[in-house]
Amino acid sequence: MRTRKFLTAAALLAGSFAAASADAAQAAPTSFPEKPIRLVIGSAPGSGPDIISRALADRLYGAWGQRVVVDSRPGVAGVLSADLVLHAPADGYTWMMLTSQLLVATAVFPNIKFNLEKDFASLSLIGTTSFVLVVNPEIPAKSIKELIEYAKKTPLKYGSAGTGASEHLSGVLFTKLTGSDMLHIPYKGVAEAVAATMGKEVNLTYGVVPAVLGAVQSGRVRALGVTGPRRSQLLPDVPSISEAIPGYQTLAWYSVVAPAGVPEAVLAKTSAAISKIVKDPQFGEQLKGLGLEIVGSDRAELEKFRAGQRKSITEIVKISGVDTK
Questions:
Q1: Mean pLDDT, range 186-208, rounded to an integer
Q2: What is the distance between the alpha carbons of residues 97 and 61, in angstroms, rounded to a whole number?
Q3: Beta strands 131-135 and 222-226: pairing type?
Q4: What is the mean pLDDT of the chain?
Q5: Are strands 156-160 and 68-72 parallel, antiparallel or unpaired?
Q6: How far apart are CA 263 and CA 31, in angstroms?
Q7: Rounded to whole angstroms, how far apart are CA atoms 173 and 315?
């Protein structure tokens, strides 16, 4: 009898400890973060992801009083940075800037040893931006429709930041939807592709707004269309390609994720903080030069966005002819 009472009391006591532990776990985020956070990016200093990350880090320091250290690990379209974050502790103190380029890389190279969907938890979609289709001024086409007609009569070459890059896939989708035939010429980066267009090595290329803006404004290339669904605030006179080609759309985008396994309460608090900062008009004004369309999503919205992008990018990769083995 005494043994039974003892076991009952012990069970009740254990239950009390379990409940207290659960309450403590729920309460833990009120003290998060208690040390600096590392935000890993797969791009070089001075790049779009780097500029966005540092702007976000500065504002989070003001909100939390803890440093967010931007750790640049360029290489293999962001694969190196993802592998580093994948092996970091799932405690909420390591984040990654997930961009469209890394998603493209995982679609092009299926042997990558991680799964973006399963291994990384969504925090917030920072924003999106378009690529711009620019042509050498010697090309007579002054619009997308004229370019399509010209391309069907004249062999053209287009440059990109490399085989399997987002710019390459933008060209693949263009030729697929228009029935035109253009030769793809890969370069080591978008700057080289733009230079090749100005130097008449290729007839046209695609680049994010900041990468082509100077050349467009100086008249060294002519912008015919942007790849996003709406015109860019930095190039308001340049129409969306979708206005001439229904269904055409490719985007560059920037988001923040964390390793899978981070406690839900920490993810929720982090996501809310990032979203609040990104939606502040001053944040958008600070990044105006990047041509960003600010989003500041919650976790569920980013999950949905990532799924849609994965589907569309995978389909484009399939029709691109890129060797994914």
A1: 93
A2: 17
A3: antiparallel
A4: 88
A5: unpaired
A6: 14
A7: 10
Alpha-carbon distance 134 to 238, whole Å? 10
Alpha carbon of 156 to those of 135, 139, 153, 305, 320: distances in Å?
11, 10, 9, 34, 17
| 210/132 Cα distance (integer angstroms) | 10
Model confidence at 319, pLDDT cuts 50, 70, 90, reads: confident
Can you tell me the distance from the alpha carbon of 27 to that of 22, in angstroms, rounded to the nearest whole number?
9
The whole-model pTM stands at: 0.83
Contact 154, 201 (CB under 8 A): no
Tokens of 18: 């379990």
Q: What is the reported pLDDT for 29?
A: 63
* Residue range 67-119, pLDDT digits in tens: 999 999 887 778 889 999 999 999 999 999 999 988 988 888 878 888 899 99
Amino acid at residue number 98:
L
Which H or E element spans position 25? helix 2-27
Q: Give residues with Cβ within 8 angstroms of 321, minimum separation 6.
A: 172
Q: Both tokens of residue 229?
A: 């669904």
Q: Strand pairing partners for 37?
A: 68
DSSP secondary structure letter of residue 240 = B
Residues facing residue 72 across a β-bridge: 41
Q: Give me the domains of the chain, ranges plus CATH numbers.
A: 36-129+251-320 (3.40.190.150), 131-243 (3.40.190.10)
Spatial CA neighbour of 131 closest among 276, 321, 257, 316? 316
